[in-house]
Amino acid sequence: MFSLTSLSIQKKFKKVNFEEEVQGKLVNFSLLRSANFVPNPITVTSVAVVPFVLKTEIITVRLDRGIDIPGGHTEESDIDLVATVEREVREETGIELVQPIYLIGIIKSDYLGTSPSDATYMLITAAKVAKISEYLPQLESRGREQLDIDAFLARYSAGSRDMMAEIVNRAKETSGELFQRSR
Fold it and tell me: Which of 82, 91, 95, 158 could form a disulfide with 68 if both were Cys (CB 3.0 to 4.6 A apart)?
C-alpha cells in the first residue's frame, strides 16, 4: 500500500473545503487534514499524484481544463490503488514512479449524496519520478511539462486553487522524506 508521512509533517496539513460543479451538480469536497484515515477501497473513485523530478520540480499534465497533476479514475483491472496511481501517471505523462508512494491527502466528496454511506474519496499521493519516457499526447492528455512548484501554482486553473495549493504544499513537505528514502 502507500507510505505515510511522519506525524510531525502531517500536523502541518490544513483541512480545505470547497464546492465545485460536477456534471451540472454542485458537489462539496473536503481535503482531509490527516492521511492516517484510509477509506474502504470500494469507496475510492480516483487517485492523483504530485510526481517530483527534483525537490522543487514536478511533472504536470496539460488537460482540456488546464494544467494539473496527473491522476484519474480507478479501474477494475487495477490490482490495488498503488497500481491505479502508476497506471494513471504512465497514461497521462509517460513517467514511472519510485516506491514508496506517499499518501498525503484524501478528498471526501458528497457527489453520490449527503449520508455518510454515500461518501466517495480521491486519494492524493506524492512520489519521486524514476524514469521519464518519450510521450506522445493522447486523448486524455495534451502533453506534460516539468515545472517548478511555484510556476505550476501560478498557472493552475483546473479547480480550487486553495485546494491545489494545500496539496502541493503537502507534497513539498513530504519531498524531503521522499528523496531521502528512495535513493
Answer: 158
